[in-house]
């Protein structure tokens, strides 16, 4: 079975967007370096960020997101971001009427169904779960193996929380990955069972 990693870029006070779903400077680190992160060359990061993020992106087989993120990004126009093979969208609403049925997106009506589909599609590759409400639900269900975050030195004060509405304590191991990039700190923790 593949590893499940909950992931996002986050402010130092724990937010992945402000109350209006704006990310402000959270993703500035993806354009402040000189090392291309993908084939387009549009994303350029510092060398330490590249050396951490590129192998991580390469291990992802599937990303699980909520319908809110899917709608905000317009479904990435049918092409999963960062070269990911498949995307599983957790939603209780029908698939958009104009959606291309050949796009590598799969719609599931709950986290259990979504995670089963993601595991099937990922094979032995990593299942990434977007932080936020869906990520928090997957963590609360005990299905997350690691928590990964790119911490950016900004304070939002309020907004969309990294762990969503999780209201119970979850213990993490000491960080086994700590990488300092330019205006970002990459952290990864194993979830203690």
Automatic annotation (TrEMBL):
Among the Pfam families in the record, one is RibD_C
Q: Any idea what this protein is called?
A: Dihydrofolate reductase family protein
Supply the Gene3D superfamilies for this chain: Dihydrofolate Reductase, subunit A
> Domain Bacterial bifunctional deaminase-reductase C-terminal: where?
3-182
Q: Out of the domains of life, which is the source?
A: Bacteria
Q: Which organism is it from?
A: Nonomuraea monospora
């Amino acid at each position: 079975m593949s590893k499940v990693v909950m992931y996002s870029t986050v402010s130092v006070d724990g937010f992945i967007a402000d109350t209006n779903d704006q990310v402000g400077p959270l993703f500035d680190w993806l354009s402040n370096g000189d090392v291309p992160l993908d084939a387009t060359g549009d994303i350029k990061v510092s060398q330490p960020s590249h050396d951490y993020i590129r192998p991580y992106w390469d291990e992802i087989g599937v990303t699980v997101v909520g319908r809110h993120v899917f709608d905000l990004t317009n479904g990435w126009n049918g092409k999963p971001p960062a070269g990911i093979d498949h995307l599983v969208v957790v939603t209780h609403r029908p698939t958009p009427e104009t959606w291309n049925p050949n796009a590598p997106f799969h719609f599931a009506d709950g986290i259990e169904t979504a995670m089963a589909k993601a595991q099937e599609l990922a094979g032995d590759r990593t299942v990434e779960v977007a932080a936020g409400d869906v990520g928090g639900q997957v963590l609360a269900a005990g299905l997350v193996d690691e928590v990964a975050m790119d911490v950016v030195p900004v304070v939002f004060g309020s907004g969309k929380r990294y762990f969503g509405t999780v209201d119970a304590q979850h213990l993490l191991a000491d960080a086994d990955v700590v990488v300092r990039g330019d205006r970002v700190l990459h952290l990864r923790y194993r979830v203690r069972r």
